[in-house]
Amino acid sequence: MDAGDDGRQQLDTVSILNARHTLLGYLGRAGLFPGDAEELVRLVEAGAVALAHEEIGALAREAPEGGGDLYTSGWLDGAGAVAGGLGDTAARALRLAVAADASPSAGDARPPVRTTEVERARVAIGPLYLSFTEVSDLDPEVSEQVLVAVLATMGARQRAGYAGRLTEFTEEHRPRLERLYARYGPGSPTAIHGRYSLLHSPTSIAVLERLTAAPACLESEWDAGELPPAWLEGLRRGWAEAGV
Fold first, then answer.
1. CB-CB neighbours of 231 under 10 Å
2. In which domain of life is the source organism classified (predicted)?
């Protein structure tokens, strides 16, 4: 660990790589394939740079008071340059994390869905689902098949940020989702109606998000996965009624 000029403690490169290799070793011994473990670590690294970019970006919007016009101009220019550089670094780190080509369009391609992508989506939807309803004994337990269909509608970079997209979706539509689960979810009078079976699964959050964002693509992947058409129609109908 090195001390900067102002006395702050910072990790040196060797120690950072040591921690990285240690984590990869732990993940490997836990049964994760090397490529999947590397992808997860790279996503965390890309996220750390993205968060640093946000923090520096805030500094670039407003200079400390009392420094005069020249000081303010220099501060904003300098912070803006650093923020721009960090933004470029964050974008490169994300491309590396999702193993996308450096071209702008490559991240929009839709490669086969990977196991770690399904697991990340599963981790994301659980808490969101429980913020509207409860665990149901009627869960059809088809999370993997449903999430593969959902994720197949997106490119690699979209999948990498899907947890954030799901959070935005639930916050934007919270009252409507509350009405939907109250009417057709666990504990509702229509709890055992087959059309609404998927509302007993956390995956319904992800399916609803895709129904609003990419309905045609979702229908195509749904058919390709040979999932029950009635489930999709039930969510579509329930979503429309909850919007009234």
1. 23
2. Bacteria
Tokens of 44: 């965390």
In this prediction the pTM is 0.72
Domain that holds residue 45: 2-97
Scored b (16 or more CB within 10 A) or e, 120-142 reads: bbeebbeebbeebbeebeebbeb
Digit-coded pLDDT (tens) for 75-122: 888 888 888 888 888 888 787 777 644 344 444 578 899 888 998 999
Residues 6+ apart with CB under 8 A from 145: 225, 227
Residues 70 and 175 in one domain: no
Q: Do both 32 and 119 map to the same domain?
A: no
Same domain, 145 and 122: yes
